[in-house]
Design goal:
Layout lengths: L2 H7 L14 H21 L6 H8 L3 H7 L3 H25 L6 H18 L3 H4 L11 H23 L5 H21 L8 H21 L1
Helix pairs in contact: 1-5, 2-3, 2-5, 3-4, 5-6, 6-9, 8-9, 9-10
């Protein structure tokens, strides 16, 4: 994960980062800070996260944390962006690995890789996509990120399966993503023993809704 990738993905630019390091050492240092934050969040939740905790877990000085992040909210937001990027990358890899995939299969793959993130990605269960607004980062940040994700998924599905694009379909992807994270978060309260029945209920519901939207488009 490169620092520039986090910076470029931030809504409205890279204002959450105090510095934008380009050297490998600085990139590794920032990645380590985010890894440390993810580990702490998994243990105590993002509401109790402090920059001092990030520094201690990363084995860094508090000054190092503040070199990159103005406050804990910026740490959480950057971590959420990194998780979003990793989810998108996993989705593309899953599509590339499947020959003759239908759009229905692609939807299943998106649900599967998201569920995998809940099980394996540190911090993902706690922060997900829209939670930055809940810790005071501003409603627009989480909403902009979710809207961008919806637009990206709509474009991928259009290019790969000729699904329509436009405001309605992008809004549909946002709705499906928001509802997916609500259901999947509940299903993975115990990551070692996820509630697969809940996941399957969401899979069936989302397909029916998307089929209805496509039929009306």
């Amino acid at each position: 994960m490169l620092v520039t990738e986090v910076s470029n993905a931030l809504p409205g630019g890279s204002s959450l980062l105090r510095n934008e390091p380009v050297q490998a050492r600085s990139s590794a240092r920032l990645a380590g800070l985010l890894d440390a934050a993810a580990a702490v969040i998994d243990e105590i939740g993002f509401e109790r996260l402090t920059t001092a905790m990030v520094a201690e877990r990363a084995g860094a000085s508090i000054g190092t944390v503040y070199r990159y992040f103005p406050d804990r909210i910026a740490v959480v937001e950057a971590l959420a962006i990194r998780s979003t990027q990793r989810l998108a990358e996993k989705f593309i890899v899953a599509l590339d690995a499947s020959d003759g995939t239908t759009w229905q299969d692609a939807c299943d793959a998106l649900i599967d890789v998201t569920a995998e993130m809940y099980r394996t990605e540190p911090g993902f269960r706690a922060i997900r996509f829209g939670d930055a607004a809940d810790v005071g980062a501003g409603v627009g940040d989480g909403e902009d990120r979710m809207a961008a994700l919806g637009s990206a998924v709509a474009q991928i599905m259009h290019e790969r399966f000729d699904l329509p694009t436009g405001e309605r379909i992008e809004r549909t992807w946002v709705v499906l993503a928001e509802s997916a994270h609500a259901v999947l978060a509940r299903a993975h309260r115990d990551p070692a023993n996820p509630d697969s029945a809940l996941v399957e209920e969401y899979r069936a519901m989302s397909r029916i809704h998307l089929e209805a939207v496509l039929a009306a488009n």
